[in-house]
Specification:
The protein is of the alpha+beta class and about 240 residues long. It has eight helices and seven strands, in the order E-E-H-E-E-E-H-E-H-H-H-H-H-H-E.
Length: about 240
């Protein structure tokens, strides 16, 4: 198949066809892939009659299958009524970043589990994320190391996501930088990792268990709510 005019081979063909069929049958919508010029590597937007996967136009061709695959799995998660992270009763400065990072902490590994049999190339993405966090940790904002500050919650979530997903050989140096420069965030991030491992992400119920445990650990009750699996009710 072609994505943004680039031939990415046939690895994702069956997955794309199946998810497109489900979007049509279950959501009465069209599935479309478009170019994204800035921001995240990919995003998924649901509007009446249309599900749009936006993929960053600067991606190397070798990175496209995995980026598109993750986006397709996020569509599948929505169709399967997995929990989502939404704004709480009140918000904080940086709340959007906290919610996005919390969502990816649980839902990205769940997506990766479904992609694992395809053995897609993630080298470029991993290197980009590593370099970006390494640069941030050279001079992190002061509030990243202030317990209770929104920035500290964000940093702890970043720690946890990299601890869970990053290749161990690459994570070692980043973990040392966290411990040296923002030890409070590192300590809280390690606690988040432990809470996630209590529940995991093997199914929708385990995902909501992880979400709620992390919210409790980081005291995010004011700015974070979740849609409950199966029902969509806010919890």
């Amino acid at each position: 198949m072609k994505v943004l005019g680039k031939d990415i081979g046939t690895t994702l063909d069956a997955m794309y066809v199946d998810i497109e069929r489900r979007v049509i049958e279950e959501a009465d919508s069209e599935l479309r892939v478009v170019a994204l010029s800035d921001g995240a590597l990919s995003s998924v937007d649901w509007t009446p009659g249309l599900v749009t996967i936006s993929v960053h136009s600067a991606l190397q061709r070798g990175a496209l299958p995995h980026v598109l695959g993750i986006a397709l799995q996020h569509v599948r998660q929505h169709l399967d009524r997995y929990p989502n992270v939404v704004e709480g009763p009140t918000d904080v400065d940086g709340g959007d970043l906290i919610r996005v990072t919390l969502h990816e902490l649980i839902m990205a590994p769940e997506a990766e589990a479904h992609l694992a049999p395809l053995n897609l190339n993630t080298t470029w993405e991993t290197e980009q994320r590593h370099a970006a966090l390494k640069e941030l940790l050279k001079n992190p904002p002061a509030d990243w190391n202030e317990a209770g500050a929104p920035g500290n919650a964000f940093a702890a979530l970043q720690y946890a996501r990299f601890a869970i997903e990053h290749p161990p050989t690459m994570w070692t140096s980043l973990r040392a930088s966290f411990a040296e420069r923002i030890p409070v965030a590192a300590e809280r991030g390690a606690a988040v990792v432990a809470r996630v491992h209590e529940h995991g992400w093997a199914d929708a119920d385990r995902c909501i268990g992880s979400f709620m445990a992390v919210r409790e650990e980081l005291h995010l009750e004011d700015c974070v709510r979740f849609t409950a699996p199966h029902t969509g009710e806010l919890v």
